[in-house]
Design goal:
The complex is a heterodimer. Chain A is of the alpha/beta class. Chain A has a single domain, classed as Rossmann fold (3-Layer(aba) Sandwich), CATH 3.40.50. Chain A is 37% helix and 25% strand. Chain A has 7 helices and 10 strands. The longest helix of chain A is centred in the last third of the chain and has 18 residues. Chain B is of the alpha+beta class. Chain B folds into 2 domains: 197 residues, no CATH class; 195 residues, no CATH class. Chain B has a 6-stranded mixed β-barrel. Classes of the chains: A alpha/beta, B alpha+beta. Chains A and B meet through helix 2 and helix 3 of A and helix 1, helix 11 and helix 16 of B. Bound molecules: adenosine-5'-triphosphate and magnesium ion. The site of magnesium ion has 5 residues of chain A, from helix 1.
């Protein structure tokens, strides 16, 4: 369960160019949700995902992951939560340039100490679902945007984390690939009970999710 | 982390090659330079010991502090008989040194006049090789003096000139004689050349009544590195309360200090060199890391903690410096070893050396595994130190900020 209480986040606080990126967010997300944050560009979707993912600090309010309040944890503990409980799909892909596609996808599993054979099998599984299994030995810079995006998704889902935070995972995909991705996500959500939170404008995602949370100017529109 | 480090090294070739080459070159330079410095000190010492001061000298107690005829060694033969049985001694000779007034027709000067055994002296010191004019002494050179160049000039003498000597004999009676300058030497030590003359003992002992007496016995050892062990053996063999046996370390405190000062300057210039290398390696590491801030940010976002990042940097530098050092060590070692056996000979310097009576025109290197080992440890240490600043720099970004870094 994820719970946000009166969460505020500013950029450039107390400067003329101050941005109130998250404005008094109160929100509860149960385990196993399949949910979309939607809203116009710049409304704070990415900022909210980063806050939930213990990636970014907030200025006031509290965020609980189960019973742990993120703000009270050390950077080391937050890192451990990110590694063991979360999977991130970044809007900017953020692949590791020196690792091949295969190694990128398996990287988190490796860090978490999965067995080599298990990693290999799982990498094959997700990469064939996302149709990047023919690119396994390439380096990221040799891939198209859409292919990189699918690698980023594959990396996030491979280790079957408790929560997946996916920021615009379909932005660079055609509808066929978007559909495949959503099918895989839904299967993960339904079979493995993984909570999945999207931030997106994509209608396909809007139609697939079970709950939509609308944001505008950093505030919830109707929860 | 290790395999990721390896991949980073292969991926960021520019940085890897620079770090590798710098480490490689600095290892070679450092090891060779230290070896040359140590080696030239050793040869400097050997040369100085060759001039006059022995590696070991045996005195009657208090001769060095108080002096005077009552502290002369009285039974040279007994002692030298014992020395014949001590292992590690290459040669020895007894010297009788006295101070007196030397007067020429034009001038007078106080001088040390030393009675020496010319043939044995040849085997021990390089006094005979410091000859500038005339000839060195021999057992039957009689009233011939072998005089320092400075003293000759002070007395306004020439080769063959006559000089009157007045001094105290070993029984405290007066002794006076006329000597003739048969040889002039120059060791390069100003003080020494200005105040020293030699005369053959076979003649001098009759004048000074100093047969079988000596100011001290000087000993040459076959290996200078064993001087302390040999000295211990001598003390044991002599087994005498009245005698003391001292090594060059005590005899030449000032020389030892001078060498230490020289070493310190050597090390200062070396440290400057190493600091430059250190900064270049660090700056390259830093430039590399700055261009990878985003990558490190991603790693931290998806769950690498600080210690993971540190080990990543550590492994990268570890692999690079280990490779460089592994490759450089045999090369540097070979250079040191080769030149320790075949010292570098510098032609121009040979002439200068001759003038100074120091007969070596060679700069031998010192080949010492221990020295090489600590040299390598220093290079290693510097390489590891060079990752600290980049590490701090990476951590000055919050992970999510870092992923947006360009
Ligand atoms: N690092 C930052 N520094 C300053 N301002 C920021 C930063 N990140 C986001 N903002 C601002 O915060 C607001 C919310 O940004 P956010 O990235 O969360 O929007 P978004 O809803 O994800 O938009 P998009 O749909 O375009 O991805 C925007 O006004 C943006 O300008
Ligand atoms: Mg966004």
């Amino acid at each position: 369960m994820i719970k946000l209480q009166n969460v505020h986040k500013y950029f450039f606080k107390d400067e003329p160019r101050e941005v109130h990126a998250l404005n008094d967010i109160n929100l509860t997300i149960e385990d196993g949700e399949f949910t979309l944050f939607s809203g116009p560009s710049g409304c704070g979707k990415t900022t909210l995902l980063n806050a939930i993912g213990a990636l970014d600090s907030i200025d006031s309010g509290k965020i609980f992951l189960d019973d742990k309040e993120i703000g009270s944890l050390s950077e080391h503990e937050r890192t451990a939560i990110r590694l063991h409980e979360m999977g991130f799909v970044f809007q900017a892909y953020n692949l590791i340039p020196v690792l091949s596609v295969e190694e990128n996808i398996g990287f988190i599993m490796k860090l978490r100490g999965f067995r080599e054979s298990e990693i290999k099998q799982r990498v094959l599984e997700v990469s064939s679902m996302l149709e990047i299994d023919n690119k396994l030995s390439s380096l990221p810079h040799a891939l198209s945007g859409g292919q990189q995006q699918r690698v980023a998704v594959a990396r996030a889902v491979a280790s079957k984390p408790k929560i997946i935070l996916a920021d615009e995972p379909t932005a660079n995909l055609d509808s066929k690939n978007s559909q495949k991705l959503m099918d895989m996500m839904r299967e993960l959500n339904e079979k493995e009970g993984v909570s999945i939170l999207f931030a997106s404008h994509d209608d396909l995602i809007r139609e697939s999710v079970r709950r939509i949370i609308k944001l505008n100017d950093g505030a919830l529109v109707d929860a | 982390m290790f395999s990721l480090a390896l991949k980073n090294i292969l991926f960021y070739k520019g940085r890897s090659i620079t770090t590798f080459v710098l480490t490689f070159l600095s290892t070679i330079l450092f090891v060779v330079y230290v070896s040359m410095m140590d080696g030239s000190h050793k040869s400097m010492l050997e040369n100085t010991l060759k001039i006059y001061t022995g590696a070991i000298e045996i005195y009657h107690k208090d001769y060095r502090d108080i002096g005077g005829n009552e502290y002369l060694i009285q039974d040279v033969k007994t002692i030298t008989d014992k020395l014949l049985h001590v292992e590690g001694i290459e040669a020895f000779t007894a010297r009788y040194e006295t101070y007196g007034l030397l007067s020429s027709a034009e001038n007078s000067a106080a001088s040390m006049v030393a009675g020496i055994e010319p043939d044995k002296e040849k085997a021990i010191s390089s006094i005979s090789l410091a000859l500038k004019e005339g000839a060195f002494l021999s057992d039957d050179s009689g009233s011939c003096l072998y005089m320092g160049e400075g003293l000759v000039q002070k007395l306004k003498l020439k080769l063959g000139g006559e000089v009157a000597f007045v001094g105290g004999a070993s029984d405290n009676s007066f002794a006076a004689d006329i000597f003739k300058v048969c040889g002039i030497f120059k060791t390069g030590s100003f003080e020494f050349d200005l105040s020293t003359s030699f005369v053959s003992r076979s003649y001098f002992d009759k004048l000074m009544l100093s047969q079988n007496k000596a100011s001290y016995i000087t000993v040459k050892v076959d290996n200078l590195e064993h001087v302390d062990t040999i000295n211990k053996k001598i003390v044991q063999t002599l087994d005498s309360e009245k005698l003391e046996s001292l090594t060059w370390k005590t005899l030449m405190k000032t020389m030892v200090e001078a060498m230490e000062v020289d070493s310190i300057f050597g090390y200062i210039s070396l440290s400057l060199f190493l600091i430059v290398i250190f900064f270049v390696i660090m700056i390259y590491g830093f430039i590399n890391v700055s261009s990878r801030i985003k990558e490190f940010g991603v790693l931290r976002c998806i769950g690498l903690c600080n210690s993971n990042i540190f080990s990543l940097l550590f492994y990268e530098i570890f692999i690079l410096s280990t490779l460089a050092i592994l490759l450089a060590t045999p090369i540097a070692g070979t250079i040191c070893y080769y030149y320790s056996l075949n010292p570098i000979v510098i032609e121009g310097i040979a002439e200068m050396y001759k003038d100074y009576g120091i007969v070596s025109d060679e700069i031998p290197f010192d080949f010492d595994i221990f020295t090489i080992t600590w040299n390598l440890a220093v290079i290693y240490g510097l390489n590891f130190l060079s990752i600290l600043y980049p590490y701090v720099y990476i951590n000055s970004f919050r992970p999510i900020e870092a992923t947006k870094h360009v």
